[in-house]
Amino acid sequence: MNWFPLLNSLRIAAISSVIVFFAGIAAAYYIAKLPRAVKGALDVLLTLPLVLPPTVVGYLLLRVLGPRRILGAWAMAHFGARLTMQWWSAIFAVSVIVFPLMYRTARGAFEAFDETLTLAGQTLGLSNTYIFWCIRMPCCRAGILAGAVLAFARALGEYGATSMIAGYSPGRTATVATEVYQLWSIGNDALALRWVLVNIAISAVVLLAVNLLERREGVGKC
Amino acid sequence: MLKVDIEKRLGDFSLNVHFETQREKLALLGASGCGKSVTLQCIAGVKTPDRGRIVLGERTLFDSERRINLPPQQRRVGYLFQQYALFPNMTVAQNIALGAHDRPRAERERIVAEKLRAFHLEEQARSKPHQLSGGQQQRTALARILAGEPELLLLDEPLSALDGFLKWQLELELLDALAAFDGEILFVSHSREEVCHLCDTVCVLTNGRSEEKQSVQTLLRAPRSRSAALLTGCKNYSKARRMDAHRALCADWGVTLTSAQEIPDAANCVGVRNFHVAVPEEANAIVCRVLRAVPDGENVILLLLPQNGSAQLCIELGAARWNALGRPETLCVAVAPGQVMPLVDTTG
Question: Does residue B213 sit in the same domain as residue B258?
């Protein structure tokens, strides 16, 4: 059994999760401060990838990143690199699809945060940066970690948009999800089943971690 | 010295507060929603007034004309929140250390040790806030604030979430802690009792407007406005018209009452505390119909309707006296002129 698809899936999910972790937290923090109308509009826009079919997201990404489209052509002219059909092309797709999960859980955690702690910190002379990283983040830790792990789990399982933007080429862009489809379509049922079992095992472990984190949040306050 | 003169609009509500303190414990007394907390937040710098000035000692914290607006971090104003706002992810010692975070490490450790001792928190030094009792939380919050040596202490209804015996205990503790503090103290409350126990002077706030500062004793004896009288627990009011320097025609009760206080021209209302209405006396007598008699321990609370009037009177009477009178349906009550308070009613 060639383990490349698993390795590729893991690195795509890991990198996307890190990107989405920071982007989601930043979006949740700054959007909460905006006026209500703007907040509502941005909220819809940022949550859309959660409910859209992944193929729609894939299509929209290709419209922007394709070799003859705005960003794709720009990258080709400046770096001589295609943004699609690389193993890392999947990072674009996975990040967009997974972003709403992180954004929404981080926002929920921030909304439960007692804002008088921020005021107390400010009147004690603490900088806003210190308050954010040493008070707000630790207090929202459980919720935010649960969001990150959930995002990682979803990233591991992304298929639709990935297959459109990175395609399937064995040993180059194959992921667990695209491998399963490929093996099934050529009738290699036995190997497909082994990949299915691997996928189920990893996802189950990740979800178990989410449950443990959420239970800890319920017990002690921070 | 603290000088506050600020204005701020918040939707339909407008805040217009001015007062000055000089080494004293001043209370801002007002019903909830009158702008007490917003005033404190403006002084602490977490909210910005539209216009005005805030001066603390030699330093101008805020001046809209000179475009000065110090961030809360530079104001040296200690803020004690109602729920204490201790950082739940840190121990008691770490919380207190943050109050002195700008000092060198050795000095900070000395300050923390000193505060732990002074506030009897040595055994709780490594505890997290959720493991503490209410009193320990309050002491931790005070220790944290005082570790930063603020020039001004703001107390935002620190006792109102508590009741009964615990509240009384924390009140005593707070009193001790405040006695040792060398600076201005501003206390926000809607409770007459807390203000009596903890403060020297009072500034009454009604719908965002501040009245002139007065001593606590004066507020209890001769409040200026109907809202001030309400906050001090006075239950009986009648619309009134000034007849001369000491007599007012009380329309709602249908009587003319004599007041020992000089009645200001602006007075349009009269207040009488329920425990100051006696039965019977010659001066200021009011003939009433008894509407209800509510037992209250050794007393009876009577709701009366004056014969010629439309507003109820609430009085307290010893139960024995009430029984001795034969629980009558009509009663002649009276109030001594010394207890008639001429007021200004601005609430419309």
Answer: no
B164 CB-near residues (< 8 Å, 6+ apart): none
Please state whether the predicted TM-score (pTM) of the whole model is above 0.80.
Answer: no
The tally of domains found in chain A comes to 1
CB interface of B with A, residues 28-57, below 8 Å: 41, 44-46
B209-256 pLDDT, tens digit per residue, is 888 888 888 888 888 888 888 888 888 898 888 888 888 888 888 888
- Work out the number of other CB atoms within 10 angstroms of the CB of residue A2: 11
**What is the count of structural domains for chain B?**
2
Look up the ipTM and state it. Answer: 0.76
Q: Can you tell me the distance from the alpha carbon of A219 to that of B96, in angstroms, rounded to the nearest whole number?
A: 25
Which residues span the domain enclosing B275? Answer: 230-343
In 3D, which of A103, A94, A113 has the Cα closest to residue A147? Answer: A103
Expressed as residue numbers, the domain containing A141 is 4-219
Of B71, B75, B85, the CB nearest to A117: B85
State the pairing for strand pair B299-306/B59-63. Answer: unpaired
Nearest to B85 among A120, A126, A138 (CB): A120
> What CA–CA distance (Å, rounded) separates B20 from B1?
7
